[in-house]
Amino acid sequence: MSFGAGPTGWVGAAGMSVGLAMGIGAMALAPVRKLVARRMPQSGEGPSAEQRESGFFVSQLVGAVGVGDGAGGTVRGTVRGDSDPGYGETAKMLSESAVCLALDEAVPEAGGVLTPAACMGMRLVERLRAAGMTFQVE
Prior knowledge:
Elements: H1 6-26, H2 30-39, H3 49-54, E1 57-65, E2 73-81, H4 85-103, H5 116-130, E3 134-137
Antiparallel strand pairs: 1-2, 2-3
């Protein structure tokens, strides 16, 4: 999440952190869990097909580069999906990852526990692009 620079951003980030901690703490209490469970969608409930098809997501990523060598800067990336992130896009990511692991020779043979990026790298990005997702680096 981005809260901006300066005191206003700090207050927003601190407020979000405190609120999240309080929410997690409250969930430790059985009456609060029961109340939340009543308000949450039940198994089998969820968005309609129309809602899923009209959904989308945009994730903006910002990373610091070269910070340790004094030549600091930032790199920005944007990932976009053209269907519901909780259903359509997650299914794309899982299925394309599985196919990539099963069929592509780009997967390393050694390395231990790897993230999808470290394991499948650009081959997975290519598969996800072919499935309709977009990736941009600025």
